[in-house]
Batch of 2 targets.
Target 1
Amino acid sequence: IKIYEVHVFRFFRFFLACIMAEVPPVPEGYEMRDLCREDFHKGLIPLLAQLTQVDDLSESRFLEIFELRQRQAEVYRSLVIEHCESKQLVATASLIVEAKFVHGGACVGHVEDVVVDDHHRGKGLAKSLMNELAEDARRRRCYKVILDCKESNVGLYEKCGYKVCDRQMRLDIPASAAKP
Amino acid sequence: IKIYEVHVFRFFRFFLACIMAEVPPVPEGYEMRDLCREDFHKGLIPLLAQLTQVDDLSESRFLEIFELRQRQAEVYRSLVIEHCESKQLVATASLIVEAKFVHGGACVGHVEDVVVDDHHRGKGLAKSLMNELAEDARRRRCYKVILDCKESNVGLYEKCGYKVCDRQMRLDIPASAAKP
């Protein structure tokens, strides 16, 4: 009977794996992948402009930052979702992994720059990105993932399993002060 | 008259520099400096335990994280304040510098793990740390510095020039899920 139970369990696990493998991480017509060098020409900057001020970012400056972040792959991960038909990026989100001395030397994930293009909302693209970043955070042994958002986006992140926690505060640094 | 004005301006600048140089960044009896390898034996972990759960952090694990963070000095900076008499750490704060694609490719500073020992509060130690981290953020061309704090600490950070901004949300990752 015990051997029989093991087989039932294994079959059930196999069956579950098959079902789960068939669930596409993003809807048909979209592809989720890591940010790459060519994405400057696939509308990354106009997409980010739907979230915040992007100012003038040249391709060479984009590549500088991209390479700096690639060198620190332990820290940075940026996902994008491409719309297959238009070959344009329609969603992005990033994870910053911080190595801490607290919690036994575990890590904390910081989710940053989550944005979905206006014309592609309501399809669960943000949730696909958030799920993949949470998976990544698990693999990198984060004990929590945190993010800051406007009050109006609290509901969206609650659907992704997040809970309202503390206050975010900011100190602005005027551009003039930033010059060396 | 123009040359005279230049001299007045230079004298004034020199005079200001003298005054500013005489303002000690921390009260007498304390020293502010970067975190170093030896700080594991100067009470860093019990100090952090006043802020959050630290669990069991061995010296070898501390050194692993310390070295990982040293290799990524573009990202991490940790300050400590040592009490000269007891040779123990009594305050610490860290800055995580994130290279962004937004804001013309500027950086954002994240202040993390700010804690002052119970017995050394009310002396402006937190403010000294916050001022130095803000200076560092300026040097590294951050356009803003952000932090998350409990509602009860909002006043402290307002004194450091911070303004309440958004909501912080968190997703906890159970320890079992963190294992590969």
Target 2
Amino acid sequence: MTRVLYDLCGIDEGLRFSPYCWRVRYALAHKGLEVEARPWRFTDKQALAFADHDKVPVLVDGDEVITDSYEILRYLDRAYPDAPLLGDAVAEGRARFLKHYAERALQPAMMRTIIMDLLNAVHPDDRDYFRESREKRFGRTLEEFHSPAKGLSQLDAALEPLRGRLKEADYIDGASPAAGDYLVFGSFMWARTVSSADLVSNADPVHAWLERMLDLHGGLGRHAMRITDVEGAYR
Amino acid sequence: MTRVLYDLCGIDEGLRFSPYCWRVRYALAHKGLEVEARPWRFTDKQALAFADHDKVPVLVDGDEVITDSYEILRYLDRAYPDAPLLGDAVAEGRARFLKHYAERALQPAMMRTIIMDLLNAVHPDDRDYFRESREKRFGRTLEEFHSPAKGLSQLDAALEPLRGRLKEADYIDGASPAAGDYLVFGSFMWARTVSSADLVSNADPVHAWLERMLDLHGGLGRHAMRITDVEGAYR
């Protein structure tokens, strides 16, 4: 059986930076499932027409086609019940809160900090699309939106609940990681792959958790290509 | 069997405003357990000597004495397994994140907004203790710390993940409330009982959830005394 994940790539085919695709990469590894992570670019809408969708991740698992990172996690728990990701209904409700925490508290703060790095990391053919869609979303130019000082200060405040949790446990989900960790960690992989910005101080319990997450599943995150690995790309 | 909860009261014995005690009041109601909520004041340390503790909530349940709101929730799940509050280990890990979210993201923002209302709501005999302990914690006078503008703007940002979750479900924990909801809602009861400040706009999905939470368990929160109910107390 072929299992294919359409995975956002940047200026180099090996540079994979979507926070949503990283959630899925970690979830697949958690289940012990192999996957071909096929490179896809923002403007390559045609390649996803078969899924009636225009964004990644898209997972093709045999005859199944699943879109949206959260729905993919749910699918994986249904199709491969061993090593649960989301857990029962109450556990899943709380995982959904963590999803929104990543998307609505962490990512906007990170975005403010790394937006110019992101523009630099996307494929040159995608840059017009990226600039136009993001400037529309932010209601201003990327240059006006960009403010590492504001972004880092916003991120510092947003990290407070995560700090509290990681002072008392190795993972958000307890003694070992599951969907709660992957949903949040994807956002950090996004920033890590496109930027060399230090988002979290060494002394922060979040930093120790990030190091553990990078090492999981054979160093899946640790060994991922970063923009600084692409010769001449980081500016 | 007697069941007693030592519960923080303010300028009126009926004014109960501790966010941590409210968590426990809701958790007990969730289990269908009766309790005598005995009024206690900050400076009445002697009354808690039997528990070797100096803060409320303290729950006395027959021969058991349990301190700390979160530990009381855990105790209730052990002693009364029907109608679980916290759930299994993974669900509980995520509930702990919600606890930190309430304490480290929501409450500091609310505190900034309602600190002078809080001072006004505590019992006159407790005010010196309250001012001194809080000024030490904040590193400045209550008057310097007080800034509804800053607090409300901080709260607006902190509510983002909660908004996302409550757009898709009636309760944080899903179709019906459990510990995730109570851990967070306690903070809103704290603000509601001591202040008439509008913290959340009518149009916000968080507002609709607050209304639902107030009505739960026979209107437990809705019928709670507020400072505005105490004649001549609100200024």
